[in-house]
Amino acid sequence: MKTTRLTLLLLAITAILMLAACKTVPVYNVNDAGVPSPQNDPLTMKQIEKAIVTGGAGLGWSMRTIKPGLIEATLNIRSHQAVVDITYDQKDYSIIYKSSINLKYDGTKIHKYYNGWIQNLSNAINNNLTTAQYE
C-alpha cells in the first residue's frame, strides 16, 4: 500500500514538473532597436546585413537574405523550429515572430524558451553592429 501511494505521489510530482516546464509566455519581438551610428560615418546597409547574419549564424540560426532590409532567420533545436523576420535599415532593426513548429504558439503566447532565443539573437546582433563600427 505504501509503495502504491509513493508511486502515485511521484507520478503527480512528475506531471506537475512537466506542466511547469511547458509554460507559455507572451511572444517577445524586438521593435526598432537602434543601430549604432558612429559620428559622420553611419554603417552601410551591407555592414548591417553582415552584422545581423554573422550574429545569428554564430548562435546556430540559418540566415537567409530575402532582399536588402529583410532577412529570414530559422532556428532548429531538436523537434522545435522558430522562424523570424529581421527587418533593418540604417537607423534600426526589428525581429518579428513569423512561424514556429512545436513551440505551442497560440496567436499570442509561445514556449518560454523562444523569448530567450530572441533575446540572445538581439544581443549577438548588437555586439556585431558595435564591432562593425570599428572595421
Give a concise summary:
This protein is an alpha+beta fold and 135 residues long. The protein contains three helices and seven strands.
SSE blueprint:
Blueprint (H helix, E strand, L loop, with lengths): L1 H20 L2 E3 L3 E5 L10 H13 L4 E6 L2 E8 L2 E9 L3 E10 L7 E3 H21 L3
Helix proportion: 40-55%
Strands across the major sheet, in which order? Answer: 2-6-5-4-3
What structural class do helix, strand and pairing data support?
alpha+beta
The CATH level-2 architecture is identified as 2-Layer Sandwich
Main β-sheet description: 5 strands, antiparallel
Quantity of strands, as a count:
7
- Low-pLDDT ranges: none
Please work out how many helical segments DSSP would assign: 3
The helix/strand order is: HEEHEEEEEH
**CATH fold topology:** TATA-Binding Protein
Radius of gyration: 20 Å
Give the DSSP E fraction (strand runs of 2 or more residues).
25-35%
Shape: elongated
Compute the separation of the termini in Å: 71 Å
What is the top-level CATH class?
Alpha Beta
Q: What count of domains describes the coordinates?
A: 1
Description of the molecule:
The chain has one domain: 2-Layer Sandwich (TATA-Binding Protein). It has three helices and seven strands; from the N terminus they run αββαβββββα. The protein has helices spanning 2-21, 45-57, 112-132; strands spanning 24-26, 30-34, 62-67, 70-77, 80-88, 92-101, 109-111. A five-stranded antiparallel sheet has the order 2-6-5-4-3, covered by helices on one side. It has a two-stranded antiparallel ribbon with strand order 1-7. The N and C termini lie far apart (71 Å). The model has no long low-confidence stretch (mean pLDDT 87).
